[in-house]
Write a structure and sequence with these properties.
Helix 13 links the parallel strand 12 and strand 13. The strands form two sheets. This protein has a seven-stranded parallel beta sheet, sandwiched between helices. A six-stranded parallel beta sheet has the order 10-9-8-11-12-13, sandwiched between helices. It has two domains: 177 residues, Rossmann fold; 177 residues, Rossmann fold (3-Layer(aba) Sandwich), CATH 3.40.50. It has 372 residues and is α/β, with parallel strands linked by helices.
Length: 372
Amino acid sequence: MEQIEIMKKLKLIISGGGTGGHIFPAVSIAKSIEDKIDNVEILFVGANNRMEMKKMPEMGYKIVGLPIIGFQRKLNLRNLLFPFKLILSLLKSFFIIKNFKPDLVIGTGGYASGPLLLVASIFRIPSLIQEQNSYPGITNRILGVYVNKICVAYTNMERYFNHEKLVLTGNPIRKDILNFKNKKNLAKEFFNIDKTKKTVLVIGGSLGARTINNAIINNLNNIKESKINLIWQTGELFYPTAKESINQLKCTRLKTYDFIKNMDLAYTVADIIISRAGAIAISELCCVGKPVILVPSPNVSENHQFKNAQSLVNKNAALLVEDRHASCKLVETLMNLVSDNELQDTLSRNIKKLAINDAAESIANLALAMKK
């Protein structure tokens, strides 16, 4: 990996969060920059009470929170607080920028990136945003006017952004996931699974997915009788219910977790994966190359998860079960796939063709070039 020498300490702010889909790219970019230069200080900026405020310190990074909240598209009393939270967040961003004096600012999406990058543009600090989806959210569309560069994972983004700022990089993938292939024995021991059975990994995103969770819990007996291993990430809220149901079945092949920190090991041991269709999840699954069933979340802007999933289905690289049909079709689709080795091979072969492994390094190079 190219080493870039910078004599003066590089001070970098990365802002993004709310879900793992914003946090994991931010960390991947940070680590890539740390690999390239020795003398760097990184400050993360997130939103108060969101998962990044807990996850970043766990990974050894300093983070500051803003009081910003999201604007609800439906009628909601919380929207009355939005203007006040936004003003407070802009003011706090002003003092963060003024005191930290960053050389670069990077945004990966989420509530906090809006006010922070807007203030950075006022100070004329070199900045870029990383847009993960084929349909950008309102925050990044606004920021696109002000930042220097816009890193995207899909083509035809000129519809939303100035084409002169666009750079097609793909989505950053966590380094441990890129290196998952050599961990098979470690993964099987870590999850203590029956090595003679196929393993299904169910991940509804870092916060869980109610529809997927309900489909799994309502079919636990069928899954038990199918003689497969189950590794099931539920999210924090659903975990007690899932744990109790699995304990009642007294089946060691069925395992549930509120959050899987060692996702590289989970991907390694999985033979089939059930997942939401967020942009980062899709990018990771392409690199992992396992047969996948996608259940797009309907609770996203412009139904972009469905579009993400459909792009894979069109290439015969994944199966799709719509959220509204998950309760009756998800486990049925899973069982059909488990018994069809030829389809598993086809899906695996085709999804691997879509992988981009060097996005974090490309974004890091682009950011550092803006500083020079």
